[in-house]
Amino acid sequence: MIQYTFPKSERLRHKALVDPLFREGQSLFEYPLRLVYRQLSEAALQQAFKIAVPDGIAPLQVMITVPKKKRRHAVDRVLMRRRIREGWRLQRRPLREAIERHPALRTLSVGLIYAADTNIDSSRIHHKIDRLITKLIARLQPATEPTTPTEA
User: Fold this and answer.
1) Beta strand 33-40 with 26-30: parallel, antiparallel or unpaired?
2) pTM
3) 110 pairs with which residues across the strands?
4) Is the peptide bond before 32 cis (omega within 30 degrees of 0)?
5) pLDDT grade, residue 104 (50/70/90)?
6) How do beta strands 60-65 and 107-114 pair?
7) Chain segment 18-27, per-residue pLDDT in tens
């Protein structure tokens, strides 16, 4: 049975991971969403924390931001955050599978930033999240060696 829950371990909340995400991360854009991501190996994850890596850091962590500058009213920010979270929760499965197949990747930190001045309906948000995830999976693919045909 497929679980579509959004556990706390998948929420990006450690300052030691959030700050470098926006300083050093790479970006993708699909209006009205900007996706910033950062790949971390086991060694890079250990270097991010002074003492030890806290328990409960999942292979895929996400944070969702709706800037006050774009959506002035709190109800609008909350609405858009909920729509983005729901779209992410339903669309993230292929990305999780791609991370599991990636040999050197310990965790992937992702930030989703809402960039529109108006509220966008859920179906459009879901579609844009799906396109962003597809682009991200294409960027995460490890370089494959050219295969030679096998002799029969």
Assistant:
1) antiparallel
2) 0.86
3) 37, 62
4) yes
5) confident
6) parallel
7) 999 999 999 9
Tokens linked to 12: 């990006």
Beta bridge partners of 64: 112
Residue 42 has pLDDT above 50, yes or no: yes
Helix (H) or strand (E) holding 75: helix 74-91
Residue 54: pLDDT band with limits 50, 70, 90: confident
Tokens 């050093």 map to which residue?
A: 24
Cα–Cα distance measured from residue 122 to residue 86, given in angstroms and rounded to the nearest whole number: 9
Angstrom distance (rounded) from CA 18 to CA 38? 10
Q: From residue 101, give the alpha-carbon distance in Å to each of 107, 129, 141, 142.
A: 12, 21, 9, 9
Q: What are the two backbone dihedrals, phi and then psi, of residue 78, each rounded to the nearest 5 degrees?
A: -65, -45
Q: Which residues, 6+ apart, have CB-to-CB distance to 40 below 8 Å? A: 17, 48, 105, 106, 107, 108, 109
The structure tokens 């682009």 sit at 135
Please report the pLDDT score of residue 126 as a whole number.
96
